[in-house]
Amino acid sequence: MKLIKPIELFQKLKASPGHLLGLDVGTKYVGFSVSDDDNKIALPKSVLVRKKSNIDLMAKDFQLLVAKYSLVGFVVGHPFSIEGQANVEAVQVRLFIENLRRTGKLDGIDYTYWNENYSSQCVEALLESVNLHPVTYKTILDKFAAVGILQGYLDDMNRKLKSKDASEE
């Protein structure tokens, strides 16, 4: 796994057809979403249970997802701090990605970090009036937070591509 800039990942995606995987890394679950065929819409998929002892199993699951969805790379939600200070959640996300990288099972996959601030709060606001079992609530929250992360990335990158194309005319 190799960290690259957000625009580099999008350029790679445009150069070779495929999809992106959006990740919302939590302490208990990792929610994920996948981009559609046009890489304009993030689609909710599922969650994986996260434990320190199952990183190899998770890496294998991600290998299957890479093959199944023709993934070009991962867009990993990262809680950026306005003050520039690292917070506990940011450290946890980076440790998770580093542990995945160390397995060697995802070599050749690029990833980038994307600001996930308020992604969970937006989903919580949408789910506020829905009466769900706590486990169901949490898995839906993580899955749709991953949608918010990937959708924000796709919107921003497509907007930049469109404005670049318009300026070249």
Please outline the helices and strands.
Elements: E1 2-3, H1 6-15, E2 19-25, E3 29-35, E4 42-49, H2 55-69, E5 71-78, H3 88-102, E6 110-115, H4 119-127, H5 134-168
Parallel strand pairs: 1-6, 2-5, 5-6
Antiparallel strand pairs: 2-3, 3-4
Helix pairs in contact: 4-5
Features:
alpha/beta; six-stranded mixed beta sheet; Nucleotidyltransferase, domain 5; 6 strands; 50% helix; Pre-16S rRNA nuclease isoform X3; RNaseH-like_sf; 5 helices; YqgF/RNaseH-like_dom_sf; nuclease activity; 169 residues; YqgF
Describe, in plain words, how this protein is organized in 3D.
One of its GO terms (biological process) is rRNA 5'-end processing. This is Pre-16S rRNA nuclease isoform X3. Keywords: Cytoplasm, Hydrolase, Nuclease, Ribosome biogenesis. GO terms for molecular function: hydrolase activity; nuclease activity. By secondary structure, the chain is of the alpha/beta class. The chain has a single domain (about 1-169), classed as 2-Layer Sandwich (Nucleotidyltransferase, domain 5), CATH 3.30.420. The protein has five helices and six strands. α4 (about 120-125) crosses α5. The model has no long low-confidence stretch (mean pLDDT about 85).
